[in-house]
Amino acid sequence: xxxxxxxxxxxxxxxxxxxxxxxxxxxxxxxxxxxxxxxxxxxxxxxxxxxxxxxxxxxxxxxxxxxxxxxxxxxxxxxxxxxxxxxxxxxxxxxxxxxxxxxxxxxxxx
Amino acid sequence: xxxxxxxxxxxxxxxxxxxxxxxxxxxxxxxxxxxxxxxxxxxxxxxxxxxxxxxxxxxxxxxxxxxxxxxxxxxxxxxxxxxxxxxxxxxxxxxxxxxxxxxxxxxxxxxxxxx
Lengths: 110, 115
Known about the structure:
The structure holds two protein chains of two kinds.
Chain A: E1 9-13, E2 18-23, E3 33-38, E4 45-50, E5 55-56, E6 61-64, E7 70-75, E8 84-92, E9 97-98, E10 104-109
Parallel strand pairs in A: 1-10
Antiparallel strand pairs in A: 2-7, 3-4, 3-8, 5-6, 6-7, 8-9, 8-10
Chain B: E1 4-7, E2 10-13, E3 19-25, E4 31-37, E5 43-51, E6 54-57, E7 64-66, E8 76-78, E9 87-94, E10 105-106, E11 110-114
């Protein structure tokens, strides 16, 4: 099963870009990378996902390396409301067993 | 659409009691999941289901049971509640088979305390 490794915490100044890394060196060719975030005790919120190519939506950008062994989530202009735990996950066990790692606690400060 | 609905939102149990956490989704998703989250920790997968009549164990299934008799409902049963099961429980659903994004839709969570 592909597993992910993320730094436990990161800080970012408000208005600056937040770059959150994720290693998934055992990812299989047909497995997607998904990013979620969790604010306080709410249910996790979907951010973005990708397979090979870089992706962008209204919330963030996802950069996946050519060998697909790592990815970076970019929040282009972080705000205080982006303070949350960010989870990088990959589909495991044939694509059904969605497991979360420990995530990165992002703290956006003034 | 209501999305994913979990009940109850809060519950206090005594050690040894049993209860069922309810989860229902109205999006016709075939994939459903139960997670638990202990204070300050990440989400752990308890059980999941890829369709009615099919369930499988996740990372931490001990002490729990599930059933999936319909596409809409995925109840989680706690037998003989223990203090270690004090946690917030999240239900989620998705549907990749129909070309959807695979985005997980989460319920608001059920906070369970076992005393």
